[in-house]
């Protein structure tokens, strides 16, 4: 307790100035300034101590509420499984109500270390290769090791496509990602040759080559360019020519802007409110569908008049193909397939081409080795032959390793989505019926147990290495392997061939 407040009257001599001070006690109601300050400070200390206690209690209560909310969220999704099945789930963390683990996921992929998201699960639960989470609005099992990825990708009896709502709505319900296994087999049979077949690739090669040559010449005269933006325009021009025989710059520029809005919404949360990426993407899809539908209507009208194009494009091929029962693709199927290929052929090819070019520039020895191979191929072309053929493309062995190494390190398709159609066990853990499954290709492709020094760009690692099924997943695996993988690699190969021969 503080001393009783008091004041002193002068009555004694000071040792310094001789003044007399008289000490006399006065009533407690009269406080000296010093005692007032003392009391004030003491009161403040008490108040600060109380405030600190309140803050500490608030933190404890908040932590308890947050922890309770997370446990309640997890319980709400697992309660229907029963104690026995619940105990067979893999370890993991289902995050917060409504948003689940999406905040941590987005934060990691906006940072310079996207692998930190999966790394946090490995750090907490060990390197078991399978974890539970809550992603894109659904309870999810994340698979990160080759054997388990292979099991899921090859098992069409227990797993179906499980893409997020935004992706299904924007790519199309009748594209490869939104249809049943039986419909998928039919659609793949009908579209494989027009897109990825040898004759189709040979037909597309000359246009791709001419576009690469003219594009590189134009860029060289432009000074500084924004490389990825220009590569996207380049790949978009190629894909639109292959699809619609369109080379109109104004039309393509307009369509590219619309497609860019569509693409930004594909991996977004399905929030259909103005200002959000998904809302803009839905509007963009309507515009793209309208453009493709008008082209289809025009071509059907021309066919009724017995007027046929001199050179067929992919839309013509898709209009003509029929299955063994004589059934043809309807307009919705054709449009959804075109939008799906547009996404795969434009976005992925542009990114991979950019990164391959960057890696070559950063590694002069690899650049030189690639260049020597391409010079040798160039010299082997007969004088009477104009440009490249598929024969030369198949000779590009080292360049193919450069592309594979780029796909391994920076593949834009870092994850694939499935959904369990029955209770299934993977790596000893339960994946309940109806739960989503995410296959983390990125974790597989950067696994240090398969690829020593995994982030190092080293095409020579492929010289005497043939990966086991499931340990290299640039285009997926199984019946749903990317249907445009050969077309994508052809675009990248032709671009890099001419780039290393004449540009830096």
Automatic annotation (TrEMBL):
Residues 1-23 are annotated as: Disordered. Pathway: Plant hormone biosynthesis; gibberellin biosynthesis; Hormone biosynthesis. Keywords: Heme, Iron, Membrane, Metal-binding, Monooxygenase, Oxidoreductase, Transmembrane, Transmembrane helix. GO terms for biological process: gibberellin biosynthetic process. Its main location: membrane. GO terms for molecular function: ent-kaurenoic acid monooxygenase activity; heme binding; iron ion binding. GO terms for cellular component: membrane. It is a single-pass membrane protein. Its cofactor is heme. Residues 11-23 have a biased composition (Polar residues). It holds the Pfam family p450. It is found in: Membrane. Belongs to the cytochrome P450 family. This is (wild Malaysian banana) hypothetical protein. It comes from Musa acuminata subsp. malaccensis (Wild banana).
């Amino acid at each position: 307790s503080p001393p009783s407040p008091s004041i002193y009257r002068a009555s004694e001599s000071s040792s310094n100035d001789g003044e007399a001070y008289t000490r006399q006690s006065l009533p407690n109601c009269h406080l000296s300034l010093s005692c007032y300050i003392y009391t004030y400070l003491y009161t403040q200390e008490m108040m600060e101590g109380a405030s600190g206690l309140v803050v500490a209690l608030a933190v404890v209560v908040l932590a308890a509420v947050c922890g309770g909310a997370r446990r309640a969220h997890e319980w709400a999704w697992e309660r229907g499984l029963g104690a026995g099945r619940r105990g067979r789930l893999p370890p993991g963390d289902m995050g917060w109500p409504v948003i689940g683990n999406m905040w941590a996921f987005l934060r990691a992929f906006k940072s310079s270390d996207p692998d930190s998201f999966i790394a946090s699960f490995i750090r907490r639960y060990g390197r078991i290769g399978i974890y539970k989470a809550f992603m894109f609005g659904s309870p999810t099992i994340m698979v990160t090791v080759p054997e388990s990825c292979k099991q899921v990708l090859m098992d069409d009896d227990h797993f179906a496509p499980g893409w997020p709502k935004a992706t299904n709505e924007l790519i199309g319900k009748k594209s490869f990602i939104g249809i049943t296994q039986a419909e998928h087999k039919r659609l793949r049979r009908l579209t494989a040759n027009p897109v990825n077949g040898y004759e189709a690739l040979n037909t597309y090669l000359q246009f791709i080559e001419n576009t690469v040559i003219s594009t590189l010449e134009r860029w060289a005269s432009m000074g500084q360019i924004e490389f990825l933006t220009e590569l996207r325009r380049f790949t978009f021009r190629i894909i639109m020519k292959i699809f619609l025989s369109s080379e109109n710059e104004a039309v393509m520029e307009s369509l590219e802007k619309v497609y860019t809005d569509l693409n930004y919404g594909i991996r977004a949360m399905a929030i259909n409110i103005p200002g959000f990426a998904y809302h803009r993407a839905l509007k963009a899809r309507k515009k793209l569908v309208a453009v493709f539908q008008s082209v289809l209507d025009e071509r059907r009208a021309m066919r009724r008049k017995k007027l046929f194009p001199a050179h067929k494009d992919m839309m013509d091929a898709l209009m003509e193909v029929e299955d063994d029962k004589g059934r043809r693709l309807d307009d919705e199927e054709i449009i959804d397939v075109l939008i799906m290929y547009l996404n795969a052929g434009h976005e992925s090819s542009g990114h991979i081409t950019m990164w391959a070019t960057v890696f070559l520039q950063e590694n002069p020895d690899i650049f030189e080795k690639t260049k020597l191979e391409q010079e040798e191929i160039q010299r082997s072309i007969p004088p009477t032959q104009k440009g490249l053929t598929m024969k030369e493309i198949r000779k590009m062995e080292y360049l193919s390793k450069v592309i594979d190494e780029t796909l391994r390190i920076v593949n834009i398709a870092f994850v694939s989505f499935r959904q369990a159609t029955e209770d299934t066990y993977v790596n000893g853990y339960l994946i309940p019926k109806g739960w989503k499954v995410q296959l983390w290709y990125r974790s597989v492709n950067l696994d240090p147990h398969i690829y020593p020094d995994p982030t190092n760009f080293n095409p020579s690692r492929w010289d005497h290495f043939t990966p086991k099924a499931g340990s290299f997943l640039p285009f997926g695996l199984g019946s749903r392997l990317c249907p445009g993988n050969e077309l994508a690699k052809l675009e990248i190969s032709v671009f890099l061939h001419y780039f290393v021969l004449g540009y830096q």
